[in-house]
Amino acid sequence: MMLYKSALAKGEDVYITEKHRTIGPMLVDLDFRFDPVESHEKPVRTYTTATIDAFANLLGSCVSHYADKETFDIFVLEKPSGPTSIKSLVKDGLHFQIPDIVTRPGVQYMVRADVLKGMPAVLDHLNLVNRYEDVLDESIIERNNWLMYMSKKPGSCPYLVTRVLRYRASDKVLQDVTADTQLDAQSLTDRFSIRNKFEETPIREERLNDVIDHEQQMQEKRKRRELVQTVLTNQPVTSNNMCENLEVVCKLVDILDASRGESYNDWVRVGWCLRNIDHRLLDKWIEFSRRSPKYVEGECARMWTHMRMGGLGMGTLHMWARTDSPERYREIVRSDLADSISKSVSGTHYDIARVVHHMYRYEYVCASLRNRTWYEFRNHRWHYSDSACSLRKRLSTDVFNEYAQCALYHQHKAVNGDSEQEAQKRNVEMCNKLNAIALKLKTTNFKDNIIKECCELFYHEKFEEKLDSNCGLMGFLNGVYDLENSEFREGRPDDYISYTTGINYVPFSEDLPQLANIKRFWSQVLPKDDIREYVLTLLSSFLSGHTREERFHIWTGSGCNGKSLSVELFDKALGDYTCKFPVTLLTQKRAASNAATSEIARAKGRRFACLQEPSEDERLNIGLLKELTGGDKVQARALYKEPVEFKPQWHIALLCNHLPHVPSDDGGTWRRIRVVEFTSKFVEFPKNANEFPIDLELSEKLDEWKEPFMSLLIEYYKTRYAKKKIKEPDAVLACTREYQKNNDHFADFVDTCIEKTSPSGVLRMSDAFLEFRSWVKDDNIPIRVPKKKDVQKYLDRALGKPSMENGDVCYRGFSVRDRGGGFSNKGGADYDD
């Protein structure tokens, strides 16, 4: 203290703050923000002596409500320099100190709460733009250090005592005793120090229980803060979970609508988002959560360590804030942007591109530097932006306006602000530079160069890889449906969705328009209940990009049976999520490894792929069929583009009148294939049970049906597929087995010529092969008889591991079925031995 007083005596500038002890004097810091008065060149102080008296009287009344002291002096401190301009606002303030009232922080918090209630009546005439909670600074009670008397912040001036008001509690009288008080700096330094107060002011007896209760609540909060601090201390600190600009993040959270804390899912998402942005934001999530009456103490800290990483981030937080409070969001962004604009007055393309990036980094992405591929986020999803066209337009509008506004601010400061000639000159220069940049932002060549620089700043190397990769999300015109959580919500940049169904999501209801017609249509296309339920559940499973079943679906039936219209309706409901594969993809040989495979590249992220009618003599390429339905990553290359590797989300269906040949006898192929036969007929004059009247205008009605049909499919997904998975009807399995028999001649042979017997029965391989040759000839099977070892290889798989008996391969428990003709080894069929 002696050194400090010595520095004061020498007239030195001092910048010393004191840390709070467990007890301390009553301190008040009023921080005013208000709009400038246009008629005044310089900022004008708006509060008056009457304002000070009114507030001091309010403060004295609230303090005496708790402190058992008849009289005490309230010191008023002001900055002699007066108010100052900060951006577009005027800043001013007042300090009040009551050195004779010494309490614990809890009492000062209670006094502050009472003072806040009376502030509107005292300060409303000032037309402040900041909230009273922000005007009356809470942090100086115990968290933030307090400036010693005559100390100041660098570049500022100290608060000095201008008045001393004595408050008498018994009759609530305020008396000005400034002239009777010793006000020299040396004396006030001792009196105002917050570190030399050791005797606590007594609390009024009638308020004692309230103070004790409040202290206990404060203690509980301190314990919770310690828990939070422990949680944060235990978090791994990496560049991935730390944010450089926490101040902006906190401001954005402050303007989020309180309704985001009402539903559990929305509340958790806010926490998840903040946890991804920075692991130190737990306190901010707790503060946000307290705005809801559903808040439970300790729940945020408990969940913080279990938050899922990835997904939500700064882009989502900006989108929420922009949606909830557009005006306040623009103010925050503009304030944050001012520094970047000031640093760009050099006029270089890179510096201006940094400003553009600062403004739109959560709305635009450059996905390829080589191809100049841009995407813009709007209306719940990412849209391809040809040559960043919309961003170029914004250079001449929004970015221009920001530079013009900043230039106007410096012009105003030059005319009405600082009186120093040098400062005025700097403001004029800044204004001219900013205006020059603003004008360039309306010229083509300059904009071209800015966009070129923006490519690198906006570049996201993995963007197209992430695009449409979330298997559980579907984009709609009015939002995003989350299949895993059965929830419809707004789309977010972090969803990485570019596809859309092209329709609005409509919640399911049995009263939906056209739903009855849709159900009637399906009851006619698939009259059997179990098959209809199977197909509708199957279509609902196609909404998801998960391909666990690894099926290849074949829908068959000849002429006017409704299968094509069924798929057309499904296509219209899914929009971008469907595609068509050329049937040659699965009937021709595999393309060369360096050849373009555009049809596969275009199918990335699609949920349904349809193939139409192969020729009668065409055979399926089983290797490709397994690859495209196996769920493993595939590699594809669009024309003139680099190869991409991705995990397929598509479910494939082949529509045909004639079933194609499947040249395979292995179980892996037939495990994948499922055949549904569409047996109905739509005719002009129905006569038979499976015939229905044809509606020649039905195709035109599908546009009215697609929204309610999608609602029906989502309902099926929630209530059937997600809970019970897919039950395959016997008729579908039987139809598939019949198809297998017609293609797999080995299976047909076993089914026709081999029967299961008692365990003592024995089928010799030599007998089986003789029967196979006879069967090929007698039944006119259109194949060349394979080698004996190939027949044995199949029987090993079908009948089980054989044994060797008397030099022959034998299968226990099987025998040749008696077909009425016995064995036949006569010639007639070509075969290899």
From TrEMBL:
Supply the Gene3D superfamilies for this chain: P-loop containing nucleotide triphosphate hydrolases
Q: What InterPro entries does UniProt report for this protein, alphabetically?
A: AEP_C962R, Helicase_put_C_phage/plasmid, Helicase_SF3_DNA-vir, NrS-1_pol-like_helicase, ORF904-like_C, P-loop_NTPase, Phage/plasmid_primase_P4_C, PriCT_2
Keywords for this protein: ATP-binding, Helicase, Hydrolase, Nucleotide-binding
Q: Which residues form the SF3 helicase domain?
A: 530-691
> Which superkingdom does the taxonomy of this entry point to?
Eukaryota
Q: Which GO terms describe its molecular function?
A: ATP binding; helicase activity; hydrolase activity, acting on acid anhydrides
Question: What is the protein's name according to its record?
Answer: Putative helicase
Species of origin: Tetrabaena socialis
